[in-house]
Design brief:
This protein is an alpha/beta fold. The protein contains 34 helices and 22 strands. Helix 21 links the parallel strand 10 and strand 11. It binds thiamine diphosphate and magnesium ion.
């Protein structure tokens, strides 16, 4: 038994929690009601909101936030309980009525909790179900990492990472990928509390699934706490005949249980008596109860029983073993549509809301008042002020901070001039040099952590890993090394290692990048995460990448190798859509260098940019294409802004070739031939269509807003070309990434690039087939010149 603390005459902790819960259900319902019924609606669209999902999670969230959580714990709340979280913050004085009244309105509280838009009270954004749950496990892994590396004061208590999950989230595969990965890394201090209402969006779930869940979690080293029945039902089951009642409820299919909950006491009685009319014990339990009392007893599930919940949570604080609570709940608990299978988007009518208000003693006009309608408002207010989570983590909210790591003006570099090498190899060598941790880069190298889904060696992280080691809480020997079996790679692990090796599941890479990229904010430790992945498999984890960017996590993603340049590997491994993805993905600055001198500039920029408040995550698309490296002056600012003239065009030139990435040599060859006829032709190296496009959009916007002098890098670069000039552009990626360039100054763009799946071949054959070799470039130039 946990301590039930008296608070004031007639009020103990459980009563106080019940009052808080009542306020949360009311405020969440009212927020949604207000948004849908009381605000002017200009477009006739349904505003929406999930009163049933909120009511389902309200008791769990009450027990957590008002009894268990400490200010430094971190929580991911299931997306559809967002309004409950807003209401919780409101009771703690951390949310305004204006924001709540503006739920789902521009500038108001977001439909689903958002770090970027709801401000510093939100630990993790949620929305794409499953991802927020899994993220807590990776955030906990990062907690172990920063503590093992001495980046935070060991006296600071370890945070618990808690997810309040909808049961349908357990259908998402990424949950199980994360469970496996968590097991490998021996994660701890993670709780997943499943709001087990056995309902998703469309329907009621199959029975007996809980058995599967329990087994799965236990197999992964988790403790599973099944919270099925509340205290009153347990007491009834303990009475003579109670065990038959328990058996009956246990066997009751989810859909029937839900339907009876919706129908109420009379239906319960009829159903129970139909099967057990002759059981004297059962009759003794149910006969004295009114229909209302019977309905209340039969829906006394543990996930709504504050005493059971707090007891179970408190007991679990005694260990750091990851724990899954399967808390049985009723979707829409206490509301008119409780248990109805169609209640996901169901909403109380104006009349039902009126009745609910009256039932809670809330006076019209006082709907937003914090403690309105409670029997002991002052005592509940005092109670809320006294709970651990009422303490502020920082004076300004739940965001921590960490000083930025100085980035040297130039990164240490291997000698590259004149060598034949690829950007992927260059990346490996530069990182390895940084890993020597000499001079200016010593501090930088301490804060870098690399991670890769089983492609660390094949993306050239090997030398870095050999220098800096593989991270694990537990030191483990490298059997091959110790056995003196020749291997280039050291795979022994230790708490001081700086590479986190992941299994092959790409979503886990992006979730770990998300967690690592929020370390300054969540853990108060500055981490510079670098994740490497085969470029095509960015698609495999794209929702998690989107999710990481949505939370404004800061990391460097290296996609390599890329494009059909990967030649013999074939179409499934050749990324063609990623340059376009790099343009359209918000809060991710995407680049594709062709040569290692550009790469060195961009890598340095990435370390700087990901630490700036106005910065973002960065994506480098690299290649295994081998090019002869140049010794040339480069304008770093131009490389970072997205393009630079390799051969500047003559003023008024009628044609230029623009290239991006691995096809540089083809473009150079074509230009040499072109200039025999068109001596003024220029050669533009595009390092980032993404940055160019963003700059162009920003300039257009600034001009619209009245700044007539606003301009941008691509406008300046293209200015020397004639108005009707042709630009033949080429990249190893979908040509749509360049097609827009023609709109900048009205010049004619002929964009070349593979727009069909790739196939196996060598570069010569493939570049010819997909029309990105020098002769295709020249053909396009001829066509463009003829059309002049
Ligand atoms: C990846 C993803 N797919 C689909 C949806 C749409 N969706 C939102 S909630 C939901 C069902 C959620 O059910 P559950 O997790 O059990 O939540 P609860 O019953 O507590 O509302 C679905 C399908 C989504 N938000 N994210
Ligand atoms: Mg559900």
């Amino acid at each position: 038994m946990n301590e039930i603390r008296p608070i004031e005459a007639g009020l103990n902790t459980i009563d106080a929690l019940a009052s808080v819960e009542q306020k949360l259900v009311w405020l969440a319902s009212w927020m949604i009601h207000n948004a849908n019924h009381l605000r002017p609606n200009r477009d006739g669209l349904k505003v929406g909101g999930h009163q049933a999902s909120c009511a389902s999670a309200a008791s769990i969230m009450t027990a957590l936030y008002f009894d268990i959580l400490r200010p430094y714990d971190r929580v991911a709340v299931k997306p559809h309980a967002g309004p409950v979280l807003h209401a919780i913050n409101y009771l703690f004085g951390r949310q305004t009525v204006e924001q709540m009244a503006g739920l789902r309105q521009m500038g108001g509280a977001q439909a689903y909790p958002s770090r970027a838009k709801d401000g510093s009270e939100i630990d993790f954004s949620t929305g794409s179900v499953g991802l927020g749950v899994a993220l807590t496990s990776f955030a906990s892994l990062m907690q172990d990492y920063v503590r093992a590396h001495g980046f935070v004061d060991p006296a600071v208590p370890r945070a618990r990472h808690v997810a309040i999950a909808g049961d349908a989230e357990l259908d998402e595969g990424n949950i199980y990928e994360a469970l496996l990965e968590g097991w490998k890394h021996d994660v701890r201090d993670v709780w997943w509390v499943v709001d087990y209402n056995r309902q998703s969006l469309d329907s009621v779930m199959p029975d007996r699934l809980f058995g599967r869940f329990e087994g799965l979690f236990r197999d992964m080293g988790w403790k599973v706490v099944s919270l099925k029945y509340g205290k009153r039902l347990e007491a009834a089951f303990a009475r003579p005949g109670g065990s038959s009642l328990r058996g009956w409820v246990d066997d009751c299919p989810n859909s029937i249980y839900s339907a009876l909950t919706f129908q109420g006491g009379a239906a319960w009685r009829q159903a129970i008596l139909a099967d057990m009319a002759k059981s004297r014990g059962v009759r003794a339990i149910i006969d004295p109860l009114s229909d209302t009392e019977l309905a209340s007893l039969m829906s006394n599930l543990a996930g709504h029983d504050l005493a059971t919940l707090t007891e179970a949570f408190r007991a679990a604080t005694k260990t750091d073993q990851p724990t899954c609570f399967l808390a049985y709940t009723i979707k829409g608990m206490g509301l008119p549509f409780a248990g109805h299978k169609d209640n996901h988007a169901g909403m109380m009518t104006v009349e039902q809301m009126g009745a609910f208000r009256a039932q809670l003693n809330i006076r019209p006009g006082h709907e937003w008042d914090r403690w309105e309608g409670l029997a002991q408002p002052k005592a509940v207010e005092k109670f809320v002020e006294s709970v651990p989570f009422a303490q502020k983590l920082t004076p300004h909210g739940r965001r921590l901070d960490a000083a930025t790591i100085p980035v040297p003006t130039t990164l240490p570099q291997p000698k590259i001039t004149g060598r034949r090498m690829s950007t992927q190899a260059g990346f490996g060598e530069i990182l390895s040099e940084i890993g020597r941790a000499k001079g200016d880069s010593a501090e930088l190298s301490k804060h870098i952590v690399t991670m890769s889904p089983d492609v660390a060696v094949s993306t050239n992280l090997g030398p870095w890993i050999n220098r800096r080691g593989v991270f694990d809480r537990h030191t483990r020997d490298d059997v091959f090394r110790d056995g003196k079996l020749a291997s280039a790679q050291r795979w022994g692990t230790s708490p001081s290692g700086q590479h986190i090796e992941l299994g092959i599941a790409e979503q886990n890479l992006f979730l770990l990048l998300a967690a690592a990229g929020l370390s300054h904010d969540l853990l108060g430790a500055r981490i510079l995460p670098i994740g490497t992945v085969y470029d095509p498999f960015v698609n495999r984890g794209h929702d998690a990448l989107f999710y990481a960017c949505y939370q404004d996590a800061r990391f460097l993603l290296v996609g390599t190798p890329s494009g059909i340049t990967l030649a013999p590997e074939g179409g499934q491994h050749q990324s063609t859509n990623t340059p376009a993805l790099g343009i359209v993905q918000d809060r991710l600055a995407s680049f594709e260098p062709a040569y290692c001198d550009e790469l060195a500039i961009l890598l340095r920029h990435a370390f700087d940019w990901m630490q700036r408040p106005e910065g973002s995550a960065v994506w480098l698309r690299l290649s295994t294409q081998i090019l002869t490296q140049k010794d040339r002056p480069l304008n770093a600012a131009h490389v970072i802004a997205g393009a630079h003239w390799v051969v500047p065009p003559a003023t008024g030139a009628g044609i230029a070739i623009a290239y991006q990435g691995a096809v540089a040599a083809e473009a150079e060859k074509a230009l040499a031939e072109l200039r025999e006829d068109e001596p003024g032709a220029g050669l533009l190296a595009i390092t980032s269509p993404d940055r160019l496009y963003a700059g162009w959009r920003a300039a257009q916007r600034a001009r619209r807003l009245g700044d007539a002098t606003a301009t941008c890098h691509i406008e300046t670069l293209l200015a020397p070309l004639a108005r009707n000039a042709a630009i033949v552009s080429v990249l190893d990626g979908h040509p749509a990434a360049h097609a827009w360039l023609g709109s900048v100054r009205g010049q004619r763009v002929m964009a070349l690039g593979p727009d069909h799946f790739g196939q196996s071949g060598d570069i010569t054959d493939l570049y010819r087939e997909y029309e990105i070799d020098s002769s295709a470039i020249l053909d396009a130039c001829a066509e463009a010149l003829l059309a002049r």
